[in-house]
Design brief:
17 helices; 29% helix; seven-stranded mixed beta sheet; homodimer; alpha/beta; 13-stranded mixed beta sheet; 545 residues
Chain lengths: 545, 545
């Protein structure tokens, strides 16, 4: 027997319609690529998104076609979020930090029909354009006054497109399973893979982001999105913002400490979201300029994801900014929010140093998401905070296949996606990533966390950067090799490092060797490129091996 | 083109499974009908719900069949919530405060197959049983030691049923549109009507209840459910509790001031939810016993719905309890949450007396819900805080038809349900109910709010209760008649009352007459029964009419 409730589909258009109806005046503040601060509202975003939808239809964009963006965080990008998905096309947010050959591959693989880009990316687009055969229209996200000279013929001006259209546009009533947006993983191995989000997954994920135990976005927040809008839907903030009426602050390309600090102060930001790198620049800016952020700012929470949060960062935000760090974890395949580290009352009762271990964990599974840990054979491991296993995830905003690889299964028999991470989960449900599956060192049937070893090695005052990889070993299968960059002008000995580690890690975790290098390979997004490092050390043998 | 995300259905079973996986130890504390406090956990609720599902299947309960409860708030009722819906049957929560003939009608109309009831309702059930022909099994929600002697043959004992079963039970994978629960309206006119909630509407509504701008239930809260579990799913708290891991406190039948106060104090309640009547008893208890609730209690928020909140109640909770009142509005047909009165920063900056007008409104539409105001012809009215119109509501947890009246349309051409209320909505989206549509007095093409008039009349120190109804008038169509009960031993004159009102309401709102009565008719749930009052005054004519 079926219930007798109304059947309303979960559509991206319902988010901006709710915003325009319930909090039309709530602000979207952008630092523009052109320079000045721009102020818009959800009501304006909705009207301009409707014009944009008319404009894209006039350009011949069909339902299901991909419209790509190559853009920083700003109000026009936000309009594209709602116009493209709302009209039934697919918003493909492209990461401009990728290498040109990756950009070419991704735009070609997605068969993007239209490419909308910020002014600053014109040279990049001009160089790529001859090889972007699917792209029928190139749109510069600016007004007529700022339109640049270009080698590209028929370059379109975003504001001209809007000016030519009416804002009379009725969002189509789509199947809620319809694709809404597309984002490619920036994998360190193999080619990038596309994750195709649906309207349903997007709205459920945004609803989750407004719950207290998740990211708790609300009408009361002014949220600074340092996390890029080309990076997994900016962690849902454009959608959750429209849902809740939170004031959003979009920083454009200026992510240096001074620019971010200025926005935090001038806009009364209460919640800021981003990756550790940007926060490091902010903390350094505040410290080196003798600023008093806890007095000058209204910042209450800093949500940090994308990489593990150092304890010192949690301490600095709390002490100097009067803001709590909320650690979160997810990936492109999970929309992204999988876990959020909101503390329990029992943690909050502890002094900072005693709650740091809990606060530095990746957090608890949000409702909708189910996690499990398994060993190499797929057998479940206990959630005791000790057992480290492959972290697998299931839920309505988790991918079931990659775009144009629909037939390649990526889920196990219980429907879980293997995150590629190794993690523990404690009795309170707090998950902590200990390593990447492919980086963990399998020694005599036990696992050694390369990340844990690197973190300890990095504690040595003369170590600038450290990487640990597994090297084949005849007896133990693999043993750890520590690769170190010493600080400029400093000299370190193999034995000094090993003595430093001894007592700080289990005896059997001690690396079998330490080698010193001048540099380490990194990915386009700044992460240690361990696959390339392993490749470099393919022929390495341990001294006694 | 469809997205490539996992397809997980929104099912009630997913709520208790999430709870058992992520916060199995979070508590459910019940004051039992038998007396003592009982402590359970979400993990235990899930295991016992699985046993119960096995037991109900053993009793022959089929998918779609109705299992009724006649019970106060307690852990066994909570187990029924998850077992019955989880197994694909329909939980029918019956309001034991209804008149016996209403109970007989409702249980017969729902064709309930099983009736589970609290010990105290045995006499009621015994008297009804001969006329409950659909009920195959009567289950007393108690253990063997408390099983009563009864005239009913084959009375079943809840704990015996569970003891006979294994907790090995796999929840079926249902269509998310499947009916999950059934609740009848307690209409003042006509027979009660059944609202049939689906799994999808229930889960979406619960997810909403965990968002910050809605009821903001979270792992951090200890929530006292004074709102009965037979009253529109206890405002979703059993579901949202499982979703969030909030500690729930279930007060059983003891809703007197002393009992409620004791639970608030002993269990560290932070959030309490219920109707004004119960809070009145609590406030009186605290005041008359010289208690210091703001010192003794951890109470932060009191969510009040079901009737308008008097300003004095908001003041008392804030001043004496240190707790904020959150006004909320909804109805059986809306699952129930439609609006919640969370304040904006600009309100909170105001002193109490200046923010009371905002805080006493019913609040803003939560995401998912869309409101409109119309005149008698269906034309939309502005949201300017002035125009009062018929309040209509649309959303995924709003009914589209009543049970067994599937073919009778209850929505307008835009899919909105007419709430039967008259309301205003201001520019910030705050809705305020000014009257019931059938009670509003239509005078010369304008509307006079009977409720507003009653509230002003009730301000007179000698008035104990006041009711205003419209009386046919040859010139103005209708004019207000004020019906008053004076305080015991007091005497009031018609002219005194009219002089009191003069200047406090618009001239043309002044009642054409005042009559004094010894009592006023009320419904089973304690509301003024205006239909009956109008019936009593059917032949009344104004002195000058």
């Amino acid at each position: 027997m079926l219930g007798l409730m109304q059947e309303h589909k979960l559509l991206v258009s319902s988010l901006i319609e709710h915003a325009a109806s319930c909090h039309p005046g709530a602000e979207i503040v952008s630092r523009t690529v052109e320079g000045p601060i721009h102020r818009s509202t959800y009501g304006q975003v909705r009207r301009r998104a409707q014009r944009l939808a008319n404009a894209l239809e006039a350009l011949g964009v069909q339902r299901g076609e991909r419209v790509a963006t190559l853009a920083w965080n700003g109000y026009r990008h936000m309009e594209l979020y709602f116009a493209v998905s709302g009209m039934g096309a697919v918003l493909h947010t492209v990461n401009p930090r990728l290498f040109p050959e990756q950009l070419e591959y991704i735009i070609g693989h997605a068969e993007d029909a239209v490419l909308c880009f910020d002014l600053g990316f014109l040279p990049l687009v001009e160089s790529l354009a001859p090889r972007l055969s699917s792209v029928r229209a190139f749109v510069v996200m600016t007004d007529r006054a700022h339109m640049p000279a270009s080698s590209l013929p028929d370059l379109l001006c975003y504001e001209d497109l809007l000016a030519a259209q009416s804002d009379d546009y009725a969002w189509p009533d789509l199947d809620e399973g319809t694709a809404a947006s597309l984002c490619y993983t920036s994998g360190t191995t193999g080619m990038p893979k596309g994750v195709l989000y649906s309207h349903r997954s997007t709205v459920l994920h945004a609803l989750g982001a407004c719950t207290v135990d998740n990211l708790a976005l609300s009408r009361d927040e002014t949220a600074l999105l340092v996390v890029p809008m080309f990076h997994v839907n900016a962690w849902s903030m454009p959608y959750a913002g429209a849902m809740s009426g939170a004031k959003l602050v979009l920083p454009g390309p200026a992510l240096d400490g001074a620019s971010v600090y200025q926005l935090l102060r001038d806009e009364g930001v209460t919640l800021a979201l981003g990756v550790p790198t940007v926060w490091m620049m902010l903390l350094q800016h505040a410290a080196s300029n003798g600023l008093a952020p806890s007095v000058e700012l209204a910042l209450r929470r800093v949500v940090i994801g994308g990489a593990a949060v150092p304890h010192t960062m949690i301490e600095s935000f709390e002490r100097d900014f009067g803001a709590s760090v909320v650690h979160a974890w997810g990936m492109t395949e999970t929309s992204p929010v999988g876990t959020v580290c909101n503390l329990l009352a029992k943690h909050r009762a502890l002094p900072l140093e005693q709650r740091l271990p809990a606060q530095a964990k990746q957090g608890r599974a949000v409702f909708g998401v189910s996690l499990k840990l398994t060993d190499d054979t797929g057998r479940r491991l206990p959630h005791d905070g000790e057992a480290a296993g492959h972290l697998k995830i299931r839920g309505p905003w988790v991918a079931r296949a990659y775009y144009r690889e629909e037939d390649a299964p990526i889920l196990d028999e219980e429907g879980y996606f293997d995150t590629g991470d190794v993690a523990t989960i404690d009795a309170d449900g707090y998950m902590q990533i200990t390593d990447r599956s492919k980086d963990v060192i399998k020694s005599g049937g036990e696992w050694i966390s390369s990340i844990a070893l690197e973190n300890v090695a990095m504690g040595h005052p003369l170590v600038a950067e450290a990487a640990v990889i597994g090297i084949a070993h005849p007896k133990w299968q693999e043993r750890p090799l520590l690769v170190v960059i010493t600080k400029p002008g400093q000299v370190l000995e193999r034995e000094t490092v090993l003595r430093y580690l001894d007592g700080r890690v289990a005896k059997w975790w001690l690396p079998d060797d330490v080698v010193f290098v001048a540099q380490l390979p990194h990915t386009a997004t700044g992460k240690l490129h361990k696959a390339r490092l392993r490749e470099q050390f393919r022929d390495y043998r341990f001294p006694d091996g």
